[in-house]
Design brief:
mainly alpha
Amino acid sequence: MNINLGKTDRLIRIIAGSVIIIVSLLYQSWWALLGVALLLNGLSGRCGGYALLGISTAEKSCEVSKKDDSA
C-alpha cells in the first residue's frame, strides 16, 4: 500500500491519537484502541480507508529527469 496521507493529515492523526490514548488510559477506557489506530496511521502515512476509497492527501512527487545532451 502506498503512502496516501499528507503532512497535515499525518500530524493531525498523530496528535489526536496521542490525546485519545492519554485520556482513555486515565479513564481506563477501550477508546485507546482508536488512538493507537490513528497513531499508527499517522506514523506510517498509510490509511486503509483512504486506500479503499481511492483518496490521497499526499503530495504528488514530480521527478523530472534531465537528459544529458552534452555527449
